[in-house]
What we know:
Elements: H1 2-18, E1 21-22, E2 29-33, E3 42-45, E4 54-58, E5 63-72, E6 75-82, E7 89-93, E8 97-99
Amino acid sequence: MRRTTTVALAAMILGTSLATGPATAAPLGRHVVQGVEDGDMLKMREGPGTGYSVIVGLPNETVVRVHECQQAGSTNWCKVSLDRARGLKGYVSYTYLRKM
């Protein structure tokens, strides 16, 4: 009985940590792109992951609006729109966003 409980608990913990779903840690609102290496840009993608096509590259200091975020693998991806061109929407890694 004890082994069954331990296995069930381990499966539940692993299942929870590997799941893709909404992430509540990322605040919504205006953010600025920061931390991108010189000569590179933050890739705005069509979906939440590196397997999606790149829409546009965003240099440091670009202002975006975060609408929602979700965990995909080990990365927190946020659906954003450009502050100055709100019709342009896509997903970026929250790692490179700083709340304004």
